[in-house]
């Protein structure tokens, strides 16, 4: 009783490395804030395929359903790239998002003053950037029917995916986005391709309608191609962005680089009920897996989001976030955010300096 059941999904590639460091951080924070964590580990992605033949075993989904929160690292890798679609690691990730009804993915991209020099953009362009991408996560072209590779009458193959949104799917993500904007700077930019796509026209109409209920939020619309350009041209114009599944996937990676590295960006995938799932924006980074080179901070900050949005422990979340700022201020860097004069560390050592800061 009174325990916080957290399911840990290490997955593949750098996943186990960054999650191990993060669990150590949570254990220390749990002691300090008297949060009795009960961690359980389960299989997903390539690791699950190797052990059971399926990317999301029923047992894993059940365990997640019975927990208070799910902390996921990353899935995927070359080894499984040639398998049929239903057996790929990515399918497991989509299945857990759908299975837990996690339609709202919050992806914050905040420039930390300590990391301005790690950004590929000029200081004056990125200084002060603070964007929240609200990405729809269980609909759109990722899930629409029909989908598949079919054979036409002439015997040619034809690959099909369908971008579709119902009114209720748009309304529920729009509501999350307006409420998110209300708690931030009160500006919401809805990103679509309404000049070409019917699904986007419906999206724009419903978001506009929903906007009437939020007169305190300044709503604007932007086409996705322009949004990609504006994100690198003048990112400070954005506060909250709401967009569909595929556009959100792409724009959040672009937003990530404003902050210096995708290795810094956490996310929260939320539904109407618990559990939420908390995951870094980046993938399994197979190019650096097993080398102790990964930046664990996106995963650690995802754990902070878990404490804030999933377990109602905002003070514990604050402490982790402050700790991360402090290690960066002390000059510690993993390779992805390295700049001259800073102290280079591996994944584990980065966790250790953070633990030291948290315990001091
Ligand atoms: P990726 O995000 O894994 O890697 C892109 C680049 O960023 C690589 O150079 C990688 O080394 C670097 N990088 C990523 N995270 C890092 C970190 N924490 N520290 C330092 N560097 C980091 O994307 P990709 O290479 O396109 O995909 C690799 C695999 O990951 C694929 O199988 C893909 O499907 C999967 N993927 C999974 C998720 C997820 O689990 N949520 C997200 C994206 C991609
Ligand atoms: C992400 C990833 C996933 C997505 C893939 C791995 C299924 O890119 O979490 O951003 O496209 O949603
Ligand atoms: Mn992605």
UniProtKB/TrEMBL annotation:
<feature type="domain" description="Isopropylmalate dehydrogenase-like">
    <location>
        <begin position="5"/>
        <end position="354"/>
    </location>
</feature>
<dbReference type="InterPro" id="IPR004429">
    <property type="entry name" value="Isopropylmalate_DH"/>
</dbReference>
<keyword id="KW-0479">Metal-binding</keyword>
<keyword id="KW-0464">Manganese</keyword>
<dbReference type="GO" id="GO:0005829">
    <property type="term" value="C:cytosol"/>
</dbReference>
<dbReference type="GO" id="GO:0009098">
    <property type="term" value="P:L-leucine biosynthetic process"/>
</dbReference>
<dbReference type="InterPro" id="IPR024084">
    <property type="entry name" value="IsoPropMal-DH-like_dom"/>
</dbReference>
<dbReference type="GO" id="GO:0051287">
    <property type="term" value="F:NAD binding"/>
</dbReference>
<keyword id="KW-0460">Magnesium</keyword>
<feature type="binding site">
    <location>
        <position position="107"/>
    </location>
    <ligand>
        <name>substrate</name>
    </ligand>
</feature>
<feature type="binding site">
    <location>
        <begin position="77"/>
        <end position="90"/>
    </location>
    <ligand>
        <name>NAD(+)</name>
    </ligand>
</feature>
<keyword id="KW-0560">Oxidoreductase</keyword>
<dbReference type="GO" id="GO:0000287">
    <property type="term" value="F:magnesium ion binding"/>
</dbReference>
<keyword id="KW-0432">Leucine biosynthesis</keyword>
<dbReference type="GO" id="GO:0003862">
    <property type="term" value="F:3-isopropylmalate dehydrogenase activity"/>
</dbReference>
<comment type="similarity">
    <text>Belongs to the isocitrate and isopropylmalate dehydrogenases family. LeuB type 1 subfamily.</text>
</comment>
<keyword id="KW-0520">NAD</keyword>
<dbReference type="Pfam" id="PF00180">
    <property type="entry name" value="Iso_dh"/>
</dbReference>
<feature type="binding site">
    <location>
        <position position="225"/>
    </location>
    <ligand>
        <name>substrate</name>
    </ligand>
</feature>
<feature type="binding site">
    <location>
        <position position="249"/>
    </location>
    <ligand>
        <name>Mg(2+)</name>
    </ligand>
</feature>
<feature type="binding site">
    <location>
        <begin position="283"/>
        <end position="295"/>
    </location>
    <ligand>
        <name>NAD(+)</name>
    </ligand>
</feature>
<comment type="pathway">
    <text>Amino-acid biosynthesis; L-leucine biosynthesis; L-leucine from 3-methyl-2-oxobutanoate: step 3/4.</text>
</comment>
<keyword id="KW-0100">Branched-chain amino acid biosynthesis</keyword>
<feature type="binding site">
    <location>
        <position position="253"/>
    </location>
    <ligand>
        <name>Mg(2+)</name>
    </ligand>
</feature>
<keyword id="KW-0963">Cytoplasm</keyword>
<protein>
    <recommendedName>
        <fullName>3-isopropylmalate dehydrogenase</fullName>
        <ecNumber>1.1.1.85</ecNumber>
    </recommendedName>
</protein>
<comment type="function">
    <text>Catalyzes the oxidation of 3-carboxy-2-hydroxy-4-methylpentanoate (3-isopropylmalate) to 3-carboxy-4-methyl-2-oxopentanoate. The product decarboxylates to 4-methyl-2 oxopentanoate.</text>
</comment>
<comment type="subunit">
    <text>Homodimer.</text>
</comment>
<feature type="site" description="Important for catalysis">
    <location>
        <position position="193"/>
    </location>
</feature>
<feature type="binding site">
    <location>
        <position position="97"/>
    </location>
    <ligand>
        <name>substrate</name>
    </ligand>
</feature>
<feature type="binding site">
    <location>
        <position position="225"/>
    </location>
    <ligand>
        <name>Mg(2+)</name>
    </ligand>
</feature>
<keyword id="KW-0028">Amino-acid biosynthesis</keyword>
<feature type="site" description="Important for catalysis">
    <location>
        <position position="142"/>
    </location>
</feature>
<feature type="binding site">
    <location>
        <position position="135"/>
    </location>
    <ligand>
        <name>substrate</name>
    </ligand>
</feature>
<dbReference type="InterPro" id="IPR019818">
    <property type="entry name" value="IsoCit/isopropylmalate_DH_CS"/>
</dbReference>
């Amino acid at each position: 009783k009174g325990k916080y059941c957290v399911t840990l999904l290490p997955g593949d590639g750098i996943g186990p490395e960054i999650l191990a460091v993060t669990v150590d951080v949570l254990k220390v924070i749990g002691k300090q804030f008297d949060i009795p964590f009960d961690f359980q580990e389960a299989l997903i992605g390539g690791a699950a395929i190797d052990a059971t033949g399926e990317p999301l075993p029923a047992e894993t989904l059940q365990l997640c359903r019975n927990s208070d929160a799910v902390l996921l690292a990353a899935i995927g890798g070359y080894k499984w790239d040639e398998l049929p679609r239903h057996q790929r690691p990515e399918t497991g990730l989509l299945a857990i998002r759908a299975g837990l009804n996690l339609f709202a993915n919050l992806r914050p991209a905040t420039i930390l003053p300590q990391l301005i020099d790690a950004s590929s953009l000029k200081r004056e362009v990125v200084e002060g950037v603070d964007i929240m991408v609200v990405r729809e996560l269980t609909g759109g072209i990722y899930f629409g029917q029909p989908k598949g590779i079919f054979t036409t009458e002439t015997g040619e193959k034809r690959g099909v995916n369908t971008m579709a949104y119902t009114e209720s799917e748009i309304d529920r993500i729009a509501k999350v986005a307006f409420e998110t904007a209300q708690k931030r700077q009160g500006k919401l930019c809805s990103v679509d391709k309404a000049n070409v796509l019917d699904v986007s026209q419906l999206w724009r109409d419903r978001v506009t309608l929903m906007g009437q209920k939020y007169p305190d939020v300044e709503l604007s619309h932007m086409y996705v191609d322009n949004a990609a350009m504006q994100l690198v041209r003048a990112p400070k114009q954005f506060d909250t962005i709401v967009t569909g599944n595929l556009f959100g996937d792409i724009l959040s990676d672009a937003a990530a680089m404003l902050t210096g590295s995708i290795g810094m960006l956490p996310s929260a995938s939320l539904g109407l009920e618990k559990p939420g799932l908390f995951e870094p924006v980046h993938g399994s980074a197979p190019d650096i897996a097993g080398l102790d080179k990964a930046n664990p901070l996106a995963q650690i900050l995802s754990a902070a989001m878990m404490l804030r949005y999933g377990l109602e422990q905002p003070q514990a979340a604050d402490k982790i976030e402050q700790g991360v700022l402090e290690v960066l201020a002390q000059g510690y860097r993993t390779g992805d955010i390295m700049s001259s004069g800073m102290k280079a560390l591996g994944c584990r050592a980065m966790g250790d300096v953070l633990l030291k800061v948290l315990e001091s």
